[in-house]
Amino acid sequence: MNPNLVTLYKCPFPKKRIGRFVDGGYVIADIPGIKYDALIAGGVCDDVSFEEDFIRYQSSDSFLVYAYDGTVGDLPQNCHFKNQFRFTQKNIGGVDSDSCTNLHSVLDDYAHSADPKLFVKMDIEGGEVPWIKSLEPIHMNAIAQFVMEFHRPFGQEEIEMFKKINQTHIMVHLHPNNACGDCVHQGVFMPNVFECTYLHKRFFNGEAELN
Known about the structure:
- It contains 5 helices and 13 strands.
- It is of the alpha/beta class.
- Helix 3 (128-134) crosses helix 5 (156-168).
- The two termini are 20 Å apart.
């Protein structure tokens, strides 16, 4: 693992926390006035606080959340805005099957618009690696911003994943999952599990500045 693959840059916008103040909440770049096309959420289990706060953040009765989780049968009973959720009982990965989806069909619905602006949230226990590797450039470019938890991403497969992300997106936030310990790579202490926020390069004027 080369720590340079997860270099952190200054965010060109203020940051805002969405969701609960423990595991399940994420820090996003608060782009003034942006209206996202939809939120794609992988891994919801019994917590949709991020998704619900994101709907409030977008202030729209028609804003849709595509939620995926193969480990539960439905959204939590106390879910608000249920009419704005589209839940699918599938896990996310690199292929389409009876139990898994690579989301290509959903991404295709938005990717061909003139200015696609999808937001993606992923906490899928390692499934992020085959999923990202399966995406075409048009899919990556449709994602304006994403937050993702990476689970011990220190092998060759993960290296290729980070290289692919860095072609289109820039990391503007990182915080560790403080329950999973750390390790050392090339003299750099890194958390074993960490959550990142990535912003598409089109939101930067010129070269990004190191944080």
